[in-house]
Structure formats: structure tokens, C-alpha cells
Amino acid sequence: MAGQARAAEGQRFEFTVRSPERAEVRGSLVFATARRARAAGLAALRAAAGALVIDCGALGQTDSAGLAVLLDWLAEARHAQRQLRFEHLPEELLRLARISSVDGMLQQGV
Asked: Most Cβ neighbours (<10 Å): which of 73, 87, 89, 91?
């Protein structure tokens, strides 16, 4: 099961479910890809058998909209009483999270 969001200017985001407990994101998680990225992640979270781990190691460009997407996934997981954790968060994304004091939330998960 794979979801893809493509944007103008060649920006691309892919969300790939590897198993019921693991997924991978790659490409650009930016304003242009945020809406579809959000939808793909929420669908994977709802379909997960239990805890879900999302590997972010292949993310390239990120911005504040991308950060908002990850925070939204965490909020949805908390609301659904599911566990969600991110692995290999890019430093660029963590820098954005530190500005808003949400880096601990990203690194800890729910």
C-alpha cells in the first residue's frame, strides 16, 4: 500500500507502508505536499494493527507545514489511543521543531 503526493515544481512525497507496524516516508514534506501527506499518514495510522513506526530517514526538504503534518499524526494517534513513533528524523526538521519547543514530542512519539 503506497500513497504519493506530487506537487508542482517536481516536489514529491511518498508514504509507503512496509508492514502493519512500519511505514517509510521519502521526498519533500513541505507546504505543497502537506495535504496529501497528511491524508496518507492518517490512513496508515487508522489501518495499523497497533503501534506504528514511521521511518523519516529518506525525507529531503521539510518546512513548517511538514512539521505540522507530523504533529497532526501524533495528535490523531493520541486521540485514537494508538502508539506512533518516528525514526531517523532529519536535522532540518528537528531544528524547526526546536523553535516551537516540540522537538521532544517528535522524538518521543505517543
From this structure: 73
